[in-house]
């Protein structure tokens, strides 16, 4: 073991030196480019930017309604921030990824606002706001239970003053001042599709860098030469992969080459930044695609070397990967508007690490997951014993199958496994533990990098404390809550909700087994099929044909929405309207095809198995019990236990609701003074109605085993 660690350390030193050599070669190339590369690093990729002035005829102003964007699509807290800044006499825009997502008819992860007000002026406008950040400070505004990040045009302009002067000299002498301010700011964005501005008061979208064209062709391209862009901030590599994974984008040749060449540079990022980017990848509904792209660009070896080695080995032997199926089932539950806390994916990694290093009897895994899901030992064991007869073959995770264990022996083994899950957290937080675990894969590279914060690891390990201490008296504390996921509690890392969802994910994975594919366990067109996932990992690239089938649906969700067929977009002042739009008949035809495609991806109800009946009966019984009046219990002990279980949850919910109500009352008083009571009430009702429709679209957990 000691020799294996020495070999691993030597390999780590060697890889560090080779990465340094690559960095030196890259710097030498930059040196040859000289002043030209430094001066024009803010320019769009061009053969010789020094000889070309800025072509303002390519700047575009698009009417938002013509590309399917309406004001009702903006989140209520963001709209309030925009309106208050606008009434204060400042220009205010939505910028970046939220504009991109609105154009694709997707729910933005967040809404970023930029304004002509400086940071101090922004802070004075709001009751609860603070300025954070050193290099690029922003103002965080707390409003209506949300946090809106507001940046200032002044910040970026002051930070890159010298570069701005060089760029301004290439502009035409006659240029609109507002266009100039927006354009200068857009040059500091990472990708063209993130450089769009949306003015909600004129309902115009401003595109200065060809972002709309790249978005239409589903291509990710940097604003400046990709090597220069990623050297300025190597975190853009991770951000680019995350965006491409979620939106199924392809890469420009320049961007793809730079990602390969500079992938090793992410090892120098701050651990907090790494954790932030990885959490965005794994907690927002695109974990499988993200892992595949990390593997493709040799980044998984740096971030999660044990998991990278596991995937490489299974790819070589063509065995089914339990790890990928776990994350596939996580992706089915979460999304940008319903994300999970990081404890979910950290918990899944811990669970899988424990299984790989200590293979278990299938009955032990079924019971472990079932107890997490049902919230108590008795129901969990009954369920596990009934469905452990299903053949599940994961190698090396499952060692054997047995149905004859006594409850006492089973309880000991499950508690022991829960303890192993807790111990595996060290691989994610301690370099020495990581090197030790990698002795299982002696020929796989290992960077020695660990980035999961110890506080996150500690809180995740605590999820399994009750199972280790006394599993037979285990009560999750979720009580008889609705079988549907509470996404608010899941998003803030509530232990009871997190345990429940972890159990659901593991049960789904065990139920599908290695023979499962998306036609059996997937019921959402955004899911990437496990079969396709294995092809991705075996071929080391994403099959273009399969991905592109899904892409058009994000542009044409229904017959009332369309994208420009040929976009020749010009400034409104020229009064030229030469945009060719997709006709309504074409849209309806495409929408019908899309609906047919979605239907073919969904499960046939005739293929549901016997497990569906069990869960459906329990959920129906649960609903009927809620409708009836509670019966009197003859045993005082049973009554007190149920009372405690139910009220533990209700108190937590009451505390959360009370805190949100107090915040909203303070904010409403301030908002009514600025916007007027009638407008505030009108917007509140409008967004409540839309939120209700979104909630109604959340699938019931009765589909767990469909």
From TrEMBL:
<dbReference type="Pfam" id="PF12627">
    <property type="entry name" value="PolyA_pol_RNAbd"/>
</dbReference>
<keyword id="KW-0808">Transferase</keyword>
<keyword id="KW-0547">Nucleotide-binding</keyword>
<dbReference type="InterPro" id="IPR002646">
    <property type="entry name" value="PolA_pol_head_dom"/>
</dbReference>
<comment type="similarity">
    <text>Belongs to the tRNA nucleotidyltransferase/poly(A) polymerase family.</text>
</comment>
<keyword id="KW-0694">RNA-binding</keyword>
<feature type="domain" description="Poly A polymerase head">
    <location>
        <begin position="92"/>
        <end position="221"/>
    </location>
</feature>
<feature type="region of interest" description="Disordered">
    <location>
        <begin position="602"/>
        <end position="706"/>
    </location>
</feature>
<feature type="compositionally biased region" description="Basic and acidic residues">
    <location>
        <begin position="670"/>
        <end position="696"/>
    </location>
</feature>
<dbReference type="Pfam" id="PF01743">
    <property type="entry name" value="PolyA_pol"/>
</dbReference>
<feature type="compositionally biased region" description="Basic and acidic residues">
    <location>
        <begin position="615"/>
        <end position="628"/>
    </location>
</feature>
<feature type="domain" description="tRNA nucleotidyltransferase/poly(A) polymerase RNA and SrmB- binding">
    <location>
        <begin position="250"/>
        <end position="309"/>
    </location>
</feature>
<protein>
    <recommendedName>
        <fullName>Poly(A) polymerase I</fullName>
    </recommendedName>
</protein>
<dbReference type="InterPro" id="IPR052191">
    <property type="entry name" value="tRNA_ntf/polyA_polymerase_I"/>
</dbReference>
<dbReference type="InterPro" id="IPR043519">
    <property type="entry name" value="NT_sf"/>
</dbReference>
<feature type="compositionally biased region" description="Basic and acidic residues">
    <location>
        <begin position="635"/>
        <end position="645"/>
    </location>
</feature>
<feature type="compositionally biased region" description="Polar residues">
    <location>
        <begin position="697"/>
        <end position="706"/>
    </location>
</feature>
<dbReference type="InterPro" id="IPR032828">
    <property type="entry name" value="PolyA_RNA-bd"/>
</dbReference>
């Amino acid at each position: 073991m000691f020799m294996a660690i020495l070999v691993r350390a030597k390999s780590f030193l060697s890889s560090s030196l080779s990465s340094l050599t690559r960095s030196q070669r890259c710097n030498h190339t930059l040196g040859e480019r000289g002043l030209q590369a430094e001066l024009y690093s803010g320019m769009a990729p061009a053969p010789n930017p020094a000889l070309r002035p800025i072509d303002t005829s390519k700047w575009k102003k698009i009417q938002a309604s013509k590309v399917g964007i309406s004001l009702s699509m903006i989140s209520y807290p963001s709209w309030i921030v925009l309106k208050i800044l606008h009434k204060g006499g400042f220009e205010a825009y939505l910028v970046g990824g939220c504009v991109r997502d609105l154009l694709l008819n997707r729910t933005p992860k967040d809404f970023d606002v930029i304004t002509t007000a400086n940071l101090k002026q922004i802070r004075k406008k709001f009751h609860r706001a603070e300025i954070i950040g050193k290099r690029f400070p922003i103002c965080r505004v707390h409003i209506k239970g949300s946090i809106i990040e507001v940046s200032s045009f002044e910040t970026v302009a002051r930070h890159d003053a010298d570069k701005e002067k060089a760029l301004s000299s290439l502009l035409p002498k006659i240029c609109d001042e507002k266009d100039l301010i927006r354009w200068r700011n857009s040059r500091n964005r990472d990708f063209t599709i993130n450089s769009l501005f949306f003015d909600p008061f004129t309902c115009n979208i401003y595109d200065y860098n060809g972002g709309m064209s790249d978005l239409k062709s589903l291509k990710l391209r940097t604003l400046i030469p990709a090597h220069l862009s990623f050297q300025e901030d190597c975190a853009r590599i991770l951000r680019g992969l995350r965006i491409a994974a979620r939106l199924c984008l392809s890469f420009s040749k320049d961007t793809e080459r730079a990602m390969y060449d500079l992938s090793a540079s992410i090892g120098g990022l701050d651990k907090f930044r790494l954790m932030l980017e990885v959490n965005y990848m794994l907690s927002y509904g695109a974990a499988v695609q993200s892992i595949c792209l990390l593997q493709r660009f040799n980044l998984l070896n740096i971030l999660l070397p044990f998991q990278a080695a596991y995937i490489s080995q299974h790819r070589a032997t063509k065995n089914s990967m339990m790890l990928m199926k776990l994350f596939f089932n996580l992706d089915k539950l979460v999304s940008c508007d319903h994300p999970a806390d990081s404890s979910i994916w950290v918990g899944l990694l811990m669970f899988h690490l424990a299984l790989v290093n200590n293979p278990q009897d299938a009955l032990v895994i079924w019971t472990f997951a079932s107890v997490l899901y049902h919230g108590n030992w008795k129901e969990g064991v009954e369920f596990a014993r009934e469905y452990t007869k299903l053949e599940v073959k994961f190698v090396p995770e499952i060692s054997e199958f047995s149905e004859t264990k006594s409850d006492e022996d089973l309880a000991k083994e499950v508690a022991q496994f829960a303890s192993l899950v807790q111990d595996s957290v060290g691989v994610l937080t301690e370099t020495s533990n990581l090197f030790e675990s990698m002795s299982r894969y002696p020929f796989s590279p290992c960077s020695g990098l660990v980035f999961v914060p110890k506080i996150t690891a500690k809180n995740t390990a605590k999820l399994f404390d009750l199972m280790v201490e006394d599993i037979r008296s285990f009560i999750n504390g979720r009580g008889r809550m609705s079988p549907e996921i509470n996404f608010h509690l899941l998003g803030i890392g509530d232990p009871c909700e997190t345990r429940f969802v972890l159990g659901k994910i593991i049960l789904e994975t065990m139920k599908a087994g290695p023979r499962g594919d998306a036609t059996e366990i997937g019921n959402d067109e955004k899911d990437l099929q496990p079969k396709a996932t294995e092809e991705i990992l075996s071929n080391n690239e994403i099959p273009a044909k399969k991905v592109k089938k899904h892409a058009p649906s994000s542009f044409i969700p229904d017959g009332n929405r369309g994208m420009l067929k040929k976009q020749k977009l010009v400034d409104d002042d020229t009064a030229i309207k030469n945009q060719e739009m997709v006709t309504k008949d074409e849209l309806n035809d495409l929408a019908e095809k899309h609906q047919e495609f979605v239907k073919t991806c969904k499960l046939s109800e005739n293929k549901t198995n016997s497990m569906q009946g069990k869960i459906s009966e329990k959920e129906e019984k649960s609903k009927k019990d809620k409708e009836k009046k509670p019966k009197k219990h003859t045993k005082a002990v049973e009554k007190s236990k149920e009372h405690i279980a139910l009220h533990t949850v209700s108190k937590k919910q009451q505390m959360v609701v009370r805190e949100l109500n107090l915040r909203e009352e303070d904010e409403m008083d301030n908002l009514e003074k600025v916007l007027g009571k009638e407008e505030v009430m009108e917007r509140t009702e409008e967004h409540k109605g839309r939120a209700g429709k979104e909630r109604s679209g959340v699938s019931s957990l009765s589909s767990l085993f469909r």
